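Example record used in the benchmark description.
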Amino acid sequence: MSKRIVLIALGAVLLFGSTRVFADSITISHNQMTLGTEPLASIPNPGAGMTVTNNIIITVTNNTGVAWDDYTIVFITPAVFNKPNVVMIDPKSVKLLSNPFNTATILANNQNVGNNGQKEAILELTGGSLAPGASFKISLDLKYNNSVNVTGKPSVPGGPPPIPEPSSLLLLSTGMLALAPVVRRKLLV
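Model output (structure tokens):
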């Protein structure tokens, strides 16, 4: 009789417990380099009072026409004041699948974002390069208890060329004007 009660109790914990595990796929395609500040994908809320551990496979495609050095993935929960948010990457679960990057580093895990109840987890991929038109996949286990917005930000080698400041241009042109009479005299002599 006691074994039956234990089995029923174990079944109830497994069925109605606070953690479920399931798999999900996210596809992110960058068409311009300004992306990274807006949600590129969203993971739905698991339900009231539920905390889930979800195996997520993320596929990212580079359609920007520029090669990338690094890539950062940010998981962020919405602002909620009445309950604590959770968003955590399991470090042991991160797998680089068909990935040009050599290293995956968790920069933040369940970190507060301001004082509005938001939490974030940040994963940085380094040590490689993703050519234009190429894709990569990564698999990880993410623990969360609210909806999660997923954003990605590529890093471009060297970045854009620097734009000269107006004061630098003014200094250069003043120097050239000052040298003009000297050059003119040397050319006439």
